[in-house]
Amino acid sequence: MKIETLAVHSGNRVDPATGAVTLPIHLTTTFERGEDGGYPQGYIYARNSNPNRAMLEECLAALEGGAEAATFASGSAASMAVFQSLSPGDHVLAPNDVYHGTARILNEIFAPWGLETTFLDMTDPAQIERAIRPATRLLWIETPSNPLLKVTDIQRAAEIARGAGAECVCDNTWATPALQRPLELGAGLVVHSTTKYLGGHSDVTGGAVVGAAENELFPKVKRIQVSGGAVPSPFDCWLVLRGIRTLPYRMRAHSENGAKVAAFLSRHSGVDEVHYPGLDEHPGHQIAARQMEMFGGMISVQVKGGREEAMAVAAKVELFTRATSLGGTESFIEHRASIEGPGSQTPENLLRLSIGLENADDLIEDLDRALG
Ligand SMILES: *Cc1c(COP(=O)(O)O)cnc(C)c1O
């Protein structure tokens, strides 16, 4: 089945007790055992599993073309579980522009615990090959990346990982399975912050790991989810699943709007550089065109000048909300260096835009006025 159909039907059943066509929110913490001591519906205790989480996980696995999914209380908790599935002494490769929260997890939590990480430019396969060591267990990629929208060749990265006996894990938050399916290109695990496009309405925090069939790390991730308990609530799961029902159509609209806004920005005299993989001049355009169906709704723009000029543009917009995060129906604008804090590599004149579902002409007018 195609993605639109999977998004609507996966993880959905008519409720046998009431005939409700939408899954009820099961707030129970525990489930009754049978007279024989068994678990007649398969559920035991809500941290282990519950109907809302089970349906969301079924849907995510279907969308990504994976075998199984494990959902978490945030994207960061999902990333944590992947790193926790490794062993002290293991070596990880990660992009030098990986989501800053992921870099922080690796540097501040897992380095002291015994994981060593090499950060490198994942857009260069030669650099990946050079950085591989006998202890390398995991190749973490994020494409398009945050905030520079660099594009990594997923198939190539997965091949290199496989050749080295390592696992390729793709953070697919920015593309979503509606635009890009890394497991089909050879990745072993996909990670999501469902806080973003999957939830899609800026009203729920969550994360997920999806595993390819017979992936070695996934059972460990699942154990960490169940035993560690960084799980989403039934209501959180319900909200993410509700968001997913419209995901393919939202991603199409985000992408169409993104393309229009990026084209406008790339012609504007107040702009130095636009980072959007849909633009012909973007260095990753060819690879993105091969591995993505459309180019998404995330754009980074470097305005002429520095931090002050960028801040001034963010101060003048009226339709865009000044906020971090992305993937909601409403457009966001963010001065990225100042939220990433000390050590940020992000240029001071960079603004990150999450292009929402408004009419693109209104967004363009707003930006045009703010850019002056
Ligand atoms: C937001 C984000 C995360 C972290 O997700 P949270 O839900 O905020 O914990 C990880 N990766 C990417 C690419 C993100 O954009």
Topology of helices and strands:
Elements: H1 3-9, H2 51-64, E1 68-72, H3 75-84, E2 91-95, H4 100-113, E3 116-120, H5 125-131, E4 136-142, H6 154-163, E5 167-171, E6 189-193, E7 207-211, H7 218-228, H8 234-244, H9 247-267, E8 271-275, H10 285-291, E9 298-303, H11 307-316, E10 321-322, E11 332-335, H12 336-340, E12 350-354, H13 360-371
Parallel strand pairs: 2-3, 2-4, 4-5, 5-6, 10-11
Antiparallel strand pairs: 1-7, 6-7, 8-9, 9-12, 11-12
The protein binds pyridoxal-5'-phosphate (PLP).
Short overview:
This protein has 372 residues and is of the alpha/beta class. The chain has helices at 3-9, 51-64, 75-84, 100-113, 125-131, 154-163, 218-228, 234-244, 247-267, 285-291, 307-316, 336-340, 360-371; strands spanning 68-72, 91-95, 116-120, 136-142, 167-171, 189-193, 207-211, 271-275, 298-303, 321-322, 332-335, 350-354.
Our measurement of the CA-to-CA distance between the termini, rounded to an integer number of angstroms, reads 48 Å
Percent of residues in helices: 25-40%
CATH superfamily heading of the largest domain: Type I PLP-dependent aspartate aminotransferase-like (Major domain)
- Named at the architecture level, the CATH assignment of the largest domain is 3-Layer(aba) Sandwich
The domain count comes to 2
- Counting DSSP H or I runs of 4 or more residues, the number of helices is 13
Q: Could you tell me the radius of gyration in angstroms?
A: 21 Å
Which outline best applies?
globular
Listing every helix as H and every strand as E from the N terminus to the C terminus, the arrangement reads: HHEHEHEHEHEEEHHHEHEHEEHEH
Report the uncertain regions: none
Number of beta-strand segments: 12
Decide which structural class fits the backbone: alpha/beta
Distinct ligands: pyridoxal-5'-phosphate
Strand composition percent: 15-25%
CATH topology of the largest domain: Aspartate Aminotransferase, domain 2
Mean pLDDT: 97
Which CATH first-tier class of the largest domain would you pick? Answer: Alpha Beta
Largest sheet: number of strands, sense, barrel closure: 7 strands, mixed
Strand order of the largest sheet: 1-7-6-5-4-2-3
